[in-house]
Design goal:
mainly alpha
C-alpha cells in the first residue's frame, strides 16, 4: 500500500482549489460580519448567526433554489474551460424559461410527455441564445463578453414583450403569467411545503456527465486544449471555431435548462404553479452562476456544492431581516467572495506552505547552485531532437 505523502497531497490541484475556495468564503463571510458590525453593532451577531444557520431550517428550499444556480454555474464554468466568459447566462436562462412556458401553455400534449417536451424546449431556447455569441466569436472574432451581455437585455425585453402579448400566457390583472397546467410541471420529490422536484437530481446527473465529458473524452480534451491555447490547438489539427460554437451551445443549454427547471417546478399551493412577472429586470440567477462557477473553479462536481452553498446563505440572508438587516447584505457577501476568489490562489500558496512546514514537509525544492547536473543516459544522448 502506497504511503500517504502530505507534500504531494497539498500540492495537488484538487487540494489547491478546495482550500482556495474555503479561503475566499471565509474572507467574504468575515467582511460581511464587519459590514454588519458597522451598520448595526447591537444586532450584528444575531443577524450573522441567522445567515449561518437560517438555511438549516429550510433545507428543501435550499436545494430547490440551488438547482438553477447549479445549472447556470455549469454553464459559466463550461465556457471557462474553453477560455470563454459566458456572461450571457441570464439571457439564456430567460429564453429557456420562455420556451418551456410556451410549450406548457400552447401545446396540448399527453400528460406523460408534456413536461419532458417543456424541458427539451427550454434547453433548445438556451442553445439558440448561446449559439449567437458563439458564432460571432468563432467567425467574426467579436468578443463574447460584449455580445452575450447585450443578449441578456435583448432576451429579457423580447421575452417580456412576447409574454405580455400572449393572452393565453399572461394575466394582465395580476401582471404575471397564468398557472401552468399540471401536466407541464416537474415531478415533486414529495417534501411538504417545498417546491423541490426531480430537477435537483437531474442537475446533479448533468454535472457528473459534464465532468466525464471534460476529463475522460477526446472532445473534452479538445475543448480544454483550445481554452489553454487556441493557436496551439489549431496547429495540432483541432477545429477551434467549431469548438467555440459547440461550447457556447452547450453553455446555453445548461442555462436554458436552469430556466426551465425554475418555472416548471411544482408550487407549494395546490392548483397553482410557478409564474413569471415581466418587470424588465435581468434575472439574477445568471450572474449568481458566475459566482458559483468561480467558487467551484469551473469543476462540474464542485459546482454542485458551491451552488448549494450560495443557495444556503441566500436562504439564511432572507432571515437576517428579523435582526434588522436588509437581505441585500448577502449580495455584498457574495460579491466580496467573488473578489477574494480572484486572488485567493496566491494566499492559498502561502497557506499550503505553512501546513507542509508544520508537518515537517517543504513543498518548495530549492535548487543547489553547487550541485552537478544529473548525468544524461546514453540512450538519451543518441536521440535526435
Amino acid at each position: 500500500m502506497k504511503k500517504f505523502n502530505l507534500r504531494e497531497f497539498t500540492a495537488s490541484p484538487g487540494f489547491n482549489s478546495f482550500t482556495a475556495t474555503l479561503l475566499a468564503i471565509f474572507l467574504g463571510m468575515l467582511f460581511g460580519l464587519i459590514v454588519m458590525l458597522a451598520a448595526n453593532p447591537a444586532n450584528a451577531l444575531e443577524g450573522f448567526s441567522r445567515i449561518l444557520t437560517g438555511g438549516m431550517r429550510r433545507i428543501p428550499d435550499v436545494f430547490y433554489y440551488a438547482t438553477p444556480l447549479i445549472m447556470t454555474g455549469l454553464s459559466v464554468g463550461f465556457a471557462f474551460k474553453m477560455g470563454m466568459f459566458n456572461i450571457g447566462a441570464s439571457g439564456q436562462y430567460t429564453m429557456g424559461m420562455f420556451f418551456a412556458m410556451y410549450v406548457g401553455f400552447m401545446f396540448n400534449l399527453p400528460p406523460a410527455i408534456h413536461c419532458f417536451v417543456c424541458v427539451i424546449a427550454g434547453m433548445i431556447g438556451g442553445i439558440l441564445w448561446g449559439l449567437i455569441p458563439g458564432f460571432f466569436k468563432a467567425y467574426l472574432n467579436v468578443n463574447e463578453v460584449i455580445t452575450s451581455i447585450m443578449f441578456n437585455y435583448i432576451g429579457m425585453y423580447l421575452v417580456d414583450m412576447l409574454v405580455q402579448g400572449n393572452a393565453t400566457m399572461y394575466v394582465s390583472s395580476k401582471t404575471r403569467t397564468a398557472y401552468l397546467p399540471a401536466s407541464a410541471q416537474l415531478t415533486s420529490l414529495g417534501i411538504k411545503g417545498s417546491s423541490l422536484s426531480v430537477a435537483f437530481i437531474v442537475a446533479i446527473v448533468i454535472a457528473i456527465i459534464l465532468y466525464v465529458v471534460l476529463n475522460k473524452t477526446t472532445f473534452g480534451y479538445e475543448l480544454r486544449a483550445t481554452g489553454f491555447n487556441a493557436n496551439a490547438a489549431t496547429y495540432a489539427g483541432m477545429n477551434g471555431k467549431r469548438n467555440i460554437v459547440i461550447t457556447m451551445a452547450i453553455a446555453g443549454a445548461m442555462s436554458g435548462l436552469g430556466g426551465a427547471f425554475a418555472i416548471l417546478a411544482p408550487s407549494t399551493i395546490a392548483g397553482s404553479s410557478m409564474t413569471y412577472e415581466p418587470v424588465n429586470i435581468v434575472t439574477q440567477a445568471g450572474f449568481t452562476g458566475i459566482a458559483v462557477a468561480l467558487l467551484g473553479s469551473s469543476n462540474p462536481i464542485a459546482t454542485i456544492f458551491t451552488g448549494i452553498f450560495v443557495s444556503y446563505i441566500y436562504r439564511g440572508g432572507t432571515l437576517a431581516s428579523l435582526a434588522g438587516f436588509k437581505p441585500e447584505i448577502i449580495d455584498v457577501v457574495i460579491a466580496v467572495i467573488i473578489y477574494f476568489s480572484a486572488f485567493s490562489m496566491v494566499l492559498n500558496a502561502a497557506f499550503r506552505s505553512k501546513i507542509s512546514k508544520a508537518f515537517g514537509h517543504d513543498n518548495i525544492v530549492k535548487p543547489n547552485a553547487n550541485a552537478e547536473p544529473d548525468p544524461v543516459p546514453a540512450e538519451a544522448e543518441s536521440e535526435e531532437v
